[in-house]
Design brief:
The chain is α/β, with parallel strands linked by helices and 312 residues long. It has one domain: TIM Barrel (Alpha-Beta Barrel). It has an eight-stranded parallel barrel, surrounded by nine helices. The radius of gyration is 19 Å and the shape is globular. The chain binds zinc ion (ZN). Zinc ion binds next to loops.
Length: 312
């Protein structure tokens, strides 16, 4: 059952968070919906513009719609992650998305407000909600690349003005996370004083955490033991940080890097351990199973297990 993103985020505020997972291909779509069904958790399915270009937007969204028919009990929303106006117009025009993100965080505050407000007007006309971003996360995601020097935290005072002036429905904030596998290189972790202050300025308003992956050192070690060469100093967001952030207003936690690492681990170990294999679906089935299990751990972490019942 598809619901609006705003419904999900307003419902869970302060109590639990909804996992927002970026999907790129069929195994991920199926793995995600299986997990949502098994743990009766609401989910947000996300597609980046990069994912839409990779599979073709219609192909990608059609896979999600096929999953909707296959798993009719799953409560989900469909979100365009990190869009600019050209992607957003397409996503809104298609009538298939429940929310879009306008990422104008790299612009000046004034220009970010202007671009976001224009998208909000366009989206709200069609009943679609809008996530905006204020502050800049460092790191790499698809074709986004931001150096640590160019990143900065969200200002709580600006956050209040921004939400008032744009009318956006949720806000992605920069409070110490980063995109990609090389997180927290400075080891500083989540900035709870800033998060708390933003929550106080915007009570009840859904906040979004990008770069919410954990980047488990055990996974990195297994990848490298199977021939990978990933940096072992990477540190993601720790589970206790996520748990602490939810009562402060984080309603949506974006997860992308952990799933990429999982794909790398499953496939590297598969080819190392089963050199006689050459059947793509054998590795694909292993990945789907591992994907479902891993999403299950995220659902438990965010407290979303069993919460689909709140929407039926
Ligand atoms: Zn992001």
């Amino acid at each position: 059952m598809k619901v609006t993103t705003a419904t999900l985020l307003n419902q869970c505020y302060g109590r639990y968070a909804v996992p927002a997972v970026n999907v790129f291909f069929m195994e991920e779509v199926i793995g995600l919906f299986r997990a949502a069904q098994h743990w009766a958790a609401p989910i947000i399915v996300q597609t980046t513009p990069f994912a839409r270009d990779y599979a073709g937007a219609d192909m990608l969204v059609s896979m999600v719609e096929a999953a909707e028919r296959t798993f009719p009990d799953v409560v989900f929303a469909l979100h365009l992650d990190h869009g600019v106006e050209s992607h957003i117009t397409g996503a809104i025009g298609s009538g298939r998305y429940t929310s879009v993100m306008i990422d104008a965080s790299h612009d000046s505050f004034e220009r970010n407000v202007k671009r976001t407000a224009a998208v909000v007007r366009m989206a709200h006309e069609k009943g679609i909600s809008v996530e905006a971003e204020l502050g800049i996360l460092a790191g790499v995601e698809d074709d986004l690349l931001v150096s640590a020097e160019k990143s900065f935290y969200t200002s709580p005072a600006q956050a209040l003005d921004f939400v008032r002036e744009t009318g956006c429905d949720s806000l992605a904030i920069a409070v110490g996370t980063s995109h990609g596998a090389y997180k927290f290189s400075g080891g500083q972790g989540l900035q709870f004083d800033i998060l708390e202050e933003i929550g106080e300025k915007l009570p009840g308003f859904p906040l979004v955490l990008h770069g919410g992956s954990n980047v488990q050192s055990g996974v990195i070690k297994r990848i490298n033991a199977a021939g990978g060469k990933l940096g072992e100093a990477a540190r993601g967001v720790q589970d206790e940080e996520i748990r602490r952030a939810i009562p402060l207003g984080i309603t949506k936690v974006n997860i992308a890097t952990d799933m990429r690492l999982l794909w790398t681990m499953v496939n590297r170990e598969f080819f190392r351990d089963r050199p006689e294999e050459f059947t793509p679906t054998t590795a694909g089935a292993l990945y789907m199973e591992a994907y479902t299990d891993y999403i299950g751990t995220k659902i438990a972490l965010l407290g979303a297990e069993g919460k689909a019942a709140e929407f039926s």
